[in-house]
Inverse folding.
């Protein structure tokens, strides 16, 4: 052989079960060939391959005469001519799409960039105007006035905000990691909380990517089989009641055919079960074990004498077995219509048969298929001991149908709950898969998607962008899609103003993952391309982790909003004291160096406490915020104005009170500084609950981070006020006990006013006519 990288178009390649296809091939020979193409198509079942030509515009999953680079041969053997390698192959073409996809900035990055420019311009303009006022109107000393402007800038500019925001996001990374969501790009944390639509792949994301037998049909009726994946544990039930398979002869026959007419093998390693061979055949082995027939015991009792491998043209597989007494069995499994056509009888008991009712079986097969399950028919006949080889002619003699088996890649149980959680949070969930429309629709119903309609890739191709924007809102399931379709759907949703999270695991998902605001890749079964394109990686491949990530993302944004809502009003309050004093030509109640102290002590400590806040009640019952929702909304502007006015009244009130009592300017300023810090502490407790009341025991009890920062700030203020070295630096004086109590009283009064205002505002906002409460 030659290395795969040396292949060129025109080379001949032979592949067999277990091989990875090295290039795009056009088949020239195929014997029982099936290929696992979930990497490219998202289809959980292996695709059967044959030599018949298909239309040039056939969807990728329907190109049965082609093998694609990177896919895995599940069964059979084939020979093909290399038609494309490297960038020209399907997987290479997806890589080209990936490099051309434009990455969108996250809402937080855009908002913070705009907010920073706006705030800087406003502060510089205000400082310039005040400087001009002081020089030309008040005739103050330029040098002294310059220092005042420095103090004003220090008071107004939230210099600790970038650090606190970064720390808040970093804490969000830790919290998400505990929920099995690994963040690759920091701003994506907040974006996950802002999503309005989750576009999810089906295979391996909503489902387990493990085939499971769920339905058994015999002449006596239909049975359900519990258990998921390849773990051979489960029960048989009929009409909701458990059934002992040992007492059901027809189920015994069904299990024997499933165990013996099979080329796969089950294995248990590292605490998990998996399959060697075709996943569908592995699921049949699991079903046989659930029916009490282990394949190794059956193979020992009925050794195989001969076999006819599965062939796409024949659409069945057959095996010949003889027990140790010489009795023979011919076993067949395949497509229902083909096996029914071969049968003359149907099994009705342990040794009883009756004439075949073909309409009954085909009707039952259609019912199972309508639920999105793949249907396989199982048949058998007795053989004489002299029959040592198996021929197709033997299959047309006295073959009896044993029953039907329905298989599906079942939804994860936790995914159903997670979809409901997302929908309760106002987030639409849309499934975009390369699988067949009927299978996709069935899974969509099982996981609880709201819209029953399905659009296929061919229908999407017939739509222009305007029509697609309308359809994408009304439809929740998209089937037989290509990478281009997934990318178009994400862009159509974004054109409608949605914030899109895209989940997936295959190479075919990578372009859409990169384009979405929040790309979420599967960490266990996801491809390297999907992980590289995504902002988040799920460590457990579980859709339920997405709901947890949304909760954490919303909490992070709430905490960012709390930090901003605390920082801006407190800084504005500090700045307002300087501005008013300067405008009125009064003595500054706080000096520039004291303002610097306040910002160093409080901005980094008190503001940081808000980064550790847990989710507020009802976090997942609020609708997503608008994509264009500004950080500085009307409620925040009002809070800034109100808090600034209250800070101004409190600081000037205590400063005037101190002067009126004959205290020195230094002591009056010390009282004013302590009043500012106490007001900021009470403002912290007010801001902790922006969506509800702060007057509950839980709210007052706070968190360890809150009390740690309050304790550090209080200790720092005592040192600032009473330690002689700091008194010399900052010009402070010891504050009498009763004046200290008065300072705390001002803080309590401030808290009462702002909390009453918040409750009135929230109650007004909850009125139906007024829309949702402000964030």
């Amino acid at each position: 052989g030659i290395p795969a990288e040396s292949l060129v178009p025109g080379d001949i390649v032979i592949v067999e079960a277990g091989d990875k296809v090295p290039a795009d091939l056009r088949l020239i020979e195929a014997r029982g060939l099936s290929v696992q193409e979930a990497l490219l198509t998202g289809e959980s079942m292996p695709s059967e391959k044959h030599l018949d030509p298909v239309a040039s515009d056939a969807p990728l999953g329907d190109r049965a005469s082609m093998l694609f680079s990177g896919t895995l041969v599940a069964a059979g053997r084939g020979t093909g001519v290399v038609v494309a390698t490297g960038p020209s192959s399907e997987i290479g073409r997806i890589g080209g799409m990936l490099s051309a996809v434009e990455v969108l900035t996250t809402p937080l990055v855009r908002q913070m960039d705009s907010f920073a420019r706006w705030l800087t311009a406003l502060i510089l303009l205000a400082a310039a105007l005040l400087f001009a006022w002081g020089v030309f109107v008040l005739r103050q000393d330029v040098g002294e006035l310059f220092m005042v402007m420095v103090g004003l800038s220090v008071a107004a500019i939230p210099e600790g905000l970038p650090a606190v925001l970064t720390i808040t996001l970093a804490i969000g990374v830790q919290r998400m990691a505990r929920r099995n969501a690994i963040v690759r790009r920091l701003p994506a944390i907040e974006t996950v909380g802002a999503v309005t639509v989750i576009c999810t792949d089906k295979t391996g994301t909503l489902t387990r990517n493990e085939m499971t037998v769920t339905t058994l049909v015999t002449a006596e009726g239909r049975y359900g089989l519990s258990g998921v994946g390849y773990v051979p544990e489960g029960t048989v039930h009929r009409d909701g009641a458990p059934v002992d398979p040992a007492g059901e002869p027809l189920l015994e026959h069904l299990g024997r055919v499933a165990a013996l007419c099979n080329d796969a093998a089950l294995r248990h390693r590292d605490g998990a079960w998996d399959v060697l061979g075709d996943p569908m055949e592995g699921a049949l082995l699991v079903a046989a074990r659930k029916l009490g027939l282990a394949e190794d015991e059956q193979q020992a009792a009925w050794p195989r004498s001969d076999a006819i491998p599965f062939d796409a043209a024949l659409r069945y597989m057959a095996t010949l077995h003889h027990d140790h007494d010489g009795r023979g069995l011919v076993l067949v499994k395949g497509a229902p219509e083909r096996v029914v056509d071969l049968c003359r009888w149907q099994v009705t008991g342990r040794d009883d048969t009756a004439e075949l009712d073909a309409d009954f079986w085909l009707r039952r097969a259609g019912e199972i298929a309508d639920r999105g399950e793949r249907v396989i028919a199982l048949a058998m006949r007795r053989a004489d001991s002299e029959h040592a080889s198996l021929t197709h002619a033997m299959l047309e003699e006295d073959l009896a149908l044993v029953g039907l088996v329905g298989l599906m890649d079942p939804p994860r149980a936790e995914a159903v709950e997670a979809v409901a959680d997302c929908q309760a949070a106002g987030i639409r969930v849309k499934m975009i898969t390369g699988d067949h429309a009927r299978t996709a629709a069935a899974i969509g119903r099982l996981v609880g998607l709201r819209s029953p309609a399905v659009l296929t890739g061919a229908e999407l191709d017939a739509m222009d962008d305007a029509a697609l924007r309308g359809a994408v809102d009304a439809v929740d399931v998209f089937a037989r899609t290509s990478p281009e379709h997934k990318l178009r759907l994400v862009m159509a949703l974004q054109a409608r103003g949605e914030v899109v999270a895209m989940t997936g695991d295959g190479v075919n998902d990578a372009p859409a993952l990169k384009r979405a605001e929040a790309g979420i890749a599967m960490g266990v079964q996801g491809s390297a391309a999907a992980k590289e394109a995504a902002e988040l990686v799920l460590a457990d491949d579980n859709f339920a982790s997405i709901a947890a990530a949304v909760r954490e993302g919303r909490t992070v944004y709430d905490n960012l909003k709390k930090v901003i809502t605390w920082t801006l009003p407190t800084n504005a309050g500090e700045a307002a004291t300087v501005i008013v004093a300067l405008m009125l030509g009064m003595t500054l109640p706080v000096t520039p160096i004291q303002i610097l102290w306040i910002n160093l002590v409080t901005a980094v400590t008190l503001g940081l406490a808000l980064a550790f806040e847990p989710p507020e009640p009802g976090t997942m019952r609020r609708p997503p915020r608008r994509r264009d929702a500004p950080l500085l909304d009307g409620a925040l502007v009002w809070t800034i104005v109100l808090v600034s006015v209250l800070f101004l009244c409190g600081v000037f009130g205590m400063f005037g009170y101190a002067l009126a009592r004959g205290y020195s300017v230094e002591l009056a300023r010390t009282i004013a500084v302590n009043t500012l810090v106490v007001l900021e502490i009470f403002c912290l407790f007010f801001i902790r609950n922006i969506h509800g009341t702060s007057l509950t025991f839980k709210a007052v009890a706070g968190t360890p981070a809150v009390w740690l920062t309050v304790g550090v700030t209080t200790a720092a203020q005592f040192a600032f006020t009473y330690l002689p070295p700091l008194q010399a630096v900052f010009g402070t004086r010891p504050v009498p006990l009763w004046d200290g109590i008065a300072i705390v009283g001002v803080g309590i009064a401030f808290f009462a006013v702002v909390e009453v205002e918040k409750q009135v505002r929230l109650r007004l906002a909850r009125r139906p006519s007024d829309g949702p409460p402000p964030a």
User: Anything to note?
Assistant: The CA atoms of residues 162 and 624 lie 25 Å apart. Confidence is low (pLDDT under 50) at residues 768-775. The chain is about 50% helix and 20% strand. The radius of gyration is 35 Å.
